[in-house]
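Justification of computing resources. Each target in the renewal requires a structure prediction run like the one illustrated here; the chain below, 488 residues long, is used simply to show the kind of job we budget for.
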Amino acid sequence: MNTAPPAPQTSLVWFRRDLRAFDHAALHHALRQSKTVYCVFVYDSAILAELPRADRRLDFIHASLAELAAELEQLGGHLIVRHADAAEAIPRLAAELAVDAVFANHDYEPQAIERDAAVAAALRAAGRQWFSYKDQVVFERDEVLSQTGGVFSVYTPYKNAWLKKLQAEPTVLIPYNIEPLKAALAPGRSALPALAELGFEASNLGQLAIPTGMSGAAGLFEQFLPRIANYGVARDFPAVKGPSYLSLHLRFGTLSIRHLVRTVLDLMARGGGGDGAQVWLNELVWREFYAMILFHHPQVVGHAFKPAYDAIAWEQGPEADAAFAAWCEGRTGYPLVDAAMAQLNQTGYMHNRLRMVTACFLIKDLGIDWRRGEAYFALHLNDFDLASNNGGWQWAASSGCDAQPYFRIFNPITQSEKFDSAGRFIRRYLPQLAALGDKEIHAPWLVPRMLLEQKNLVLGRDYPEPIVMHDEARKRTLERYAVVKKPG
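Resulting structure tokens:
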């Protein structure tokens, strides 16, 4: 007869992509089941080794951990911080503290799944338990399936099934209340290492005034709610304050996805939020769709979701490398593309429409492998999330699930004219083009040379000539994609 293992007396909660002390699934379950609960965050050396010395994400984590530690101390606990290989550090710390179990929240990335399996195995070998919970999404893994029990590969039916399931199971949004259980937190003082002790230096995160931690996330959401009604329109214009700017906080869990969804649904139920509230909710569902795809199809890391697209022959060699460098550095000669890359390089943020425009330009104007662009974004985006980044790049490359057809090729000039018609965004990041008129700024090479000289602008000196002609590139792309037997 199998008997369930005894409830843990002493536990350890491992914080990862969930840097908050409220509505936290693993923390709640640990406090509810245990008499004493320790909390830990590990600066994972296996991840940090790949980062530049001044990394905004590490700055963000560092600042957010300070707030988390302060909040845990206010609740009666403290935060232990380690800098080591997490797969080794967690079992070792569990032994040091003599805990009965380790609690964490699910991570759906292939490497994280492998790491957690290794940690769980090491804990079990030492007679300890491992518990993991859903926290960063509303629905995960196999929770939203088709009527035949299959995994969705198209967003709209997934979204409809997601919304239907939420309507049937509204209790999934009930917050985890930590306050009544806080007495189980192990008291102590948090000791947080300085960035220099981790081998890093401060980035420009502070100069950019990017809000950090739980309070930063709450403030951004509060500012967004009065704008949400117009989100459906405003989100497409990079010079307008349209987005919520919460993607970085969603990435590191300084806010609760349950709280976001519940708040927006309540707003809609009261007749507020306009059309924008539903559009924004749909974007949150996109995030979960891509997380589900990555979980079920881990091969998308490095391979096309549609295998036929791996047969495409991308540009290679010195010319392709030079074109890629020009794209990375914002020297393509297409102002909207270059301004967007400047925004990414200077701030670590890129407006979502511009992510589509720049990705499509790299893939379909320059003929460069989407994986190179994906890796560049992964290195520079503050809000880098493997599932969403991969999903977005494969969408642009037409190789992903529910991607744009391969023959749909963004025209960077018309995108610029439509979504930055007055050139406000371009002028902000490309001040050398500021003197150009609103109609001229989108394609400087079409402006008469004499007029450019009058404005003290020389192409090739002050701003590059276009590295490719869009119409010619479009033809080459259609030829390149002809190897795909079943287009779309």
